[in-house]
Amino acid sequence: MAEAEKMVYIVTHAGEDPERATFPFMLATAAQAMEVEVVVALQGVSVFLAKKGYLEHVMAAGLPALKDLVNTYLESGGKLLICTPCVRDRNIEESDLIEGAELIAAARLNQEILSANATLVY
Q1: What pLDDT, in 10s, does the model give residues 65-94?
Q2: What is the third-level CATH fold of 6-121?
Q3: Cβ-contact 35, 67 below 8 angstroms
């Protein structure tokens, strides 16, 4: 039996660049439809994407609603990993994060990357 394929998408943008915040989730949901294991990691300013209520305000012209993409991604079993130091630096409390967001540190993200077939950074 062949090993399942796995992709990691690292997101580094939020509302300041809605296209670059949306593209990784478009690709992630497409990969899920292809039965690829997917991990999305939020670093830097992108951790705001995991804050409750924030996604309602991030829209890129001509692209699907980011809120819908994130919901579909999570409902399909996608992992949403959030940089713990990045959250702390922005004074975001764990209770402020959307359901399905998982706080992690560098070692965990490195493990995900090492086990993946490909890693993309947006």
Answers
A1: 999 999 999 999 999 999 999 999 999 999
A2: Hypothetical Protein Ychn; Chain: A, (3.40.1260)
A3: no
